[in-house]
Amino acid sequence: MNENIKLNILKADSQFEEKDFYIWCQDVILEIEEAWSCKDIDLLKSYETKELFIIHQEQLKNMVERHVQNIVKDIDVKKIDIVGYESKNDMDCIETHVELALIDYYQSLDSHEILQGSQIKKRSVKYRIVFVKDRNMVSNGFQTLRSLNVCPYCGAPIDLKKSNHCEYCQRDIHARQSCYKINELEILTLI
Ligand SMILES: [Zn+2]
User: What residue spans define the domains of the chain?
Assistant: First the structure.
């Protein structure tokens, strides 16, 4: 990340840690892709701004109507770069470029026949992702899934290497405690 961008981000968010952001980003991307494949609307909602969520909700609804499912899996996050920062409409916006390799295909919901893409061959995707936070919100940094050893809901000890399900309160744990949300997500290249 360029020093100028870094200074501007730190001015807006004194808790910003570049390394934590990248780890957090990676977790969020993996979880979003999973939510997308499973059509888990609630999970998607917790990482996206209302504007983006409405677009994704429409796309998912459209696929359901056409009896089509988009499966994305086996994701390798190759590279995450912060390429820009701006403050606009009372939002702090961090622009990133994210390179992934993943399995990405469409199948029929009824017959599971592959309609487009491959179940075997990975594709390379480069995304432009913009994360935003309300300017007035005080940042508390990026708590990542890996850093948790107690359940955020009930406080019971958990081992997330074994499971992301809390045995005690029976909740699934998605630990993205951050005030940043994804506001824009666009594919730059797809090979
Ligand atoms: Zn719990």
Answer: 3-138+179-190
Give the Å distance between the CA of 153 and the centre of ligand 1: 5
Distance 156 CA to ligand 1 centre (A): 6
Between 2 and 162, the more confident residue is 2
CA 168 from chain centre, in angstroms, equals 27
CB 89 within 8 A of CB 118: no
**Confidence (pLDDT) at 54:** 92
List pLDDT tens digits, range 118-176: 999 999 999 999 999 888 877 777 766 666 788 877 888 888 777 778 889 887 776 55
Residue 37 belongs to what H/E stretch? helix 18-37
For ligand 1, the distance from its centroid to the CA atom of residue 158, given in whole angstroms, is 8
Rg (CA), the chain: 18
Neighbours of 166 (CB within 10 A): 20
Would you state the CATH architecture of domain 3-138+179-190? Roll (3.10)
* pLDDT value of position 40: 79
Determine the 3-state secondary structure of 167 from DSSP.
Answer: coil
The answer to whether 187 touches 54, Cβ cutoff 8 Å, is no
